[in-house]
Amino acid sequence: MRKLLWLVPLLALPVVLTGPRPAESACCYFAAKDKDISQPAQKAFITWDPEEKVETFTVQPKFEGNAVDFGMVIPTPSKPKLDPMPRDFFKELAVFTILEPMNLDKYKSFKLYQRGAVVNEKADRDKGRVKVLEAGIVGSLEYKVLETDRADALYTWLKDNKYSYSGDEATLGYYIKKKWFFTVMKIDPKQMKKRSDGTYDGEVTPTRLTFASERLVYPLKITQISVKDKTEALFYVQAPHKVDLPGDFSYQFTWEPMWSQATSFALPEKLTQQEKDWQKLVQPKVQGYVEKVNQLRQKKVEPATLEWARKITDADIDVLTGKKKYNREAPPEDVKKLKELVGHVKKGQFITKMRKVFTKGEMNDDLEFVRAKVGDRNDDIEYYSILPTSPP
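RESULT FIELD:
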């Protein structure tokens, strides 16, 4: 199984602390003064209800550095509700989204072709004050929900509460101008692993935030502070339809050439009418997508990749509950724990799993996920079993 990565609204902030207690934080990392914490990878499970205008994201940041005490802050467009999630939630999500075995009846002479041969590729306010709207404990994490209308006021609050903020005030101001809220969480040092060189690495207990939002957004910009050069992000997005990243971040540049070539290997009578129609649409665009990937890579930009996409059915829910046999290769103990996803993975919803390496320069704005399309046509093509052209 490929390693999992995550991309949450976190920024790196050093902290002055008295004693060994955990640091409070803001959607970024706070670390002890003169200590470093970085975010080499991120992963998030995001859900979206466009009718109710309600979004959730479950985050589990991966961190590394030489600080014993630190925390994080997560900005949201409205006051969030926090809930704990199973410790192995993302591990089980990864097991659930392993590609199924290739349909050998569908493809002709696929052994003649090398897999991977094609291009792979976020009320009223008291002026100048920080208001603590809520405080509590979610799972093993202590949190506070804050609001303010001034970045300098938030900076002062952090300082008064024994934090030495080394990030730029403009990033805080970016979210304050949009009237977003800040969730500050303490990190339990016992969740970290100490490495042989004295530094630490680990992942925070997954936490779900539920909030009202006009758009399906992900606070990418705030994570920029905790990224040295780049971060690899893994998104699972559950929505009524298949979703994509916008513009040059789109996975279509890598997905369509891979899918189109795989379809050309299929027996014509095994293709659905949807697949035949889609091949007519995308085949003329393939060369342009390949050229686009080359252009991006010349700029040292890594294209996004689609790793799994499926509209959830009763059969999928039966796999989670154990009523139906799991047909991929995974440790038996992990397959048994798939039941932890019950209630979170919803029948009738589309789950889109995508990966993108963001350079620091690509993180100047938040992400707004979009409906997956090619031109003006909605993309509803599923990807849940291995193709002859799937990466190894």
